[in-house]
């Protein structure tokens, strides 16, 4: 396990990389014994720094929810990060590309709770019962690390991604809110356009066979850290498409059919 001093230093390095918009070397390159729990410790220290500077925790995101993504990362479970107030944008917003390093966009569903969810025995039924509504969302992911090591061309490891707040940087919420039992959430589908060209499509069942399973997993995983999903929190359940790289000047529209659309522009 990393020392508290090392954890604090790595959190500071992440914040510096974010401020300078310059990617840094993978932590697992300089700390090859870094574990998943070390990654969450660095993430918590980074969040603590943000809150100390005025940020407000709004919820959580779950990532790596598909088997293909997990196999690529060499793990057998998802990961999670923390959503802060400055990350949120409304439908139709222009996102400042200069704020990010290498942004990518993903298609998700967002759960808004009306009461707390606690592990370790949280189930999909608990999640559906505690959800006020579900709404379409786009997650903008970014990384404060080089995607591949400049010397070895090795990819990031899962401990790096977790330390990096599961690569989260922004959320765009839009479309039509729905009560969780109004429809079978497994079959919510979406088509994403970049400047009028389809670039991705998918169905929400790709998220652990039901996106509410993702929220239940989060509640149970947080319990290991004596934490929980608070009432009123927002949870991004995980992407059901591949992430798409974005560039300044591009406009994205995601059509969720009966659940409406989301648009955003990168400027």
Describe it.
With 267 residues, the chain is of the alpha+beta class. The chain has one domain: Fumarylacetoacetase-like, C-terminal domain (Fumarylacetoacetate hydrolase, domain 2). It is 27% helix and 28% strand. It has seven helices and 13 strands. It has helices at residues 4-20, 27-30, 36-52, 67-73, 124-130, 158-163, 211-223, and strands at 57-63, 79-84, 88-90, 94-95, 104-113, 131-141, 168-173, 189-194, 197-203, 234-236, 244-245, 251-255, 261-266.
Topology overview:
Blueprint: H1 4-20, H2 27-30, H3 36-52, E1 57-63, H4 67-73, E2 79-84, E3 88-90, E4 94-95, E5 104-113, H5 124-130, E6 131-141, H6 158-163, E7 168-173, E8 189-194, E9 197-203, H7 211-223, E10 234-236, E11 244-245, E12 251-255, E13 261-266
Parallel strand pairs: 1-10, 3-7, 4-13
Antiparallel strand pairs: 1-2, 5-6, 5-10, 5-11, 6-7, 8-9, 8-12, 12-13
Helix pairs in contact: 1-3, 5-7
Low-confidence stretches: none
Output the helix-strand order: HHHEHEEEEHEHEEEHEEEE
Count of discrete domains: 1
Largest sheet: 8 strands, mixed
Rounded to the nearest angstrom, the distance between the terminal CA atoms is 41 Å
Dominant shape: globular
Structural class: alpha+beta
What is the tally of helical segments? 7
Provide the residue-averaged pLDDT: 93
Features:
single chain, about 270 residues, alpha+beta, Fumarylacetoacetate hydrolase, domain 2, eight-stranded mixed sheet, five-stranded mixed sheet, 7 helices, about 25% helix, globular
Please sum up the structure shown.
This protein is α+β, with helices and mostly antiparallel strands. The chain is built from 7 helices and 13 strands. Helix 1 (4-20) packs across helix 3 (36-52).
